[in-house]
Amino acid sequence: MTSYDPRIAAFLEEIFASCNREPRLRRDPLAVVKRYPEKADRELAALVCSTLAFGGVDLIMRACERALAPLGASPAKALDRMAESDLAEAWSGFQYRYCFPKDMTALMRAAKRAREGCGSLRALFERGDPGGPDIVAGAAAFVRALKELGRPGSGAPGYPRGSCALGDGGELCGSGPLGGGGPLGGGPLGGGGPLGGGIRENLLPDPGRGSACKRLFLFLRWLVRRDDVDPGGWDSIDRSRLVVPLDLHMVRVCHGRLGFIPSAAANLKNALAATAAFRLYAPDDPVKYDFALTRPGIDPEPGDERFGCA
């Protein structure tokens, strides 16, 4: 466990003041998300763009644009109006690296059914979130719920709005507990393949399996925090519970530059260790510095070299 270092505190505040600015979003998928003024559209765009946030940033942004294009200017309303056959047709030509038409269709099916059952993605998340000092268990339940909802066929039908498709025991679609070892928590989700034609594991990893889940924690950072960069909207969730989205850039910074983690492995253990270290400097907002610390490596500007975070 690291201890508080006033030199690191000064460094973090300096890079935050310099790099945590909206103009530096120009090469970040969050720029696509922030185009939508409505919360319902923004959370849907955030799910899509965070899921696709792998690879080079320019390719990611183009993939986000293509994935959201069938939904027009009001994605949530457009998705609500789509039938199952519309989903397959809308994304029939989509491909970005290992995300194929069936994968995007499954993701949109899950989002559509979540809206039908709960009214919003936020409500689905809250229904499975047990609380606690961090957001890991809630994130795991959210992933498992989306995977169940993303399955094709009659096994996961639409639900009356407001029912949330969840029983008092945290069950979804008549399956096992969201956090346990039943159909939502056990073997069927293993490997990289999709669950019954649904969302594949490597597109939406489960933090309960030890993955760093960078894209999932990025999604939550976007929607829970609110400042010049992050738009917020999920105000009922305390930002102090967020976990650092540990990608290769943050691994290098947290391991090499700051000494917050013991190895250069991108896993949940290191993500939690990094989060604990950042809490020394921002107890109520441990992912405050995430965007700023990654800018010199992802989209450097003159002068960023002084931070040593390339």
Can you characterise this structure?
The protein is mostly helical and 310 residues long. Helix content is 45%, strand content 0%. It has 13 helices and no strands. Helix 8 crosses helix 9 (136-149). The radius of gyration is 19 Å and the shape is globular. Residues 154-162 and 166-196 have low confidence and may be disordered.
Low-confidence stretches: 154-162, 166-196
Query: Distance between the terminal alpha carbons, to the nearest Å?
Result: 25 Å
SSE pattern, N- to C-terminal: HHHHHHHHHHHHH
- Number of E-type strands: 0
Shape: globular
Helix percent band: 40-55%
Q: Strand-residue fraction?
A: under 5%
- The number of distinct helices, counting runs of at least 4 residues, comes to 13
Alpha-carbon Rg, integer? 19 Å
State mean pLDDT (0 to 100 scale). 88
Major sheet characteristics? none
- Derived structural class: mainly alpha
Quick structural overview:
This protein is mainly alpha-helical. It has helices at 6-19, 30-33, 39-51, 57-68, 75-81, 84-90, 101-118, 121-128, 136-149, 214-224, 248-257, 268-279, 290-298.
Give the topology, please.
Blueprint (H helix, E strand, L loop, with lengths): L5 H14 L10 H4 L5 H13 L5 H12 L6 H7 L2 H7 L10 H18 L2 H8 L7 H14 L64 H11 L23 H10 L10 H12 L10 H9 L12
Structural descriptors:
13 helices; about 300 residues; mainly alpha; single chain; about 45% helix
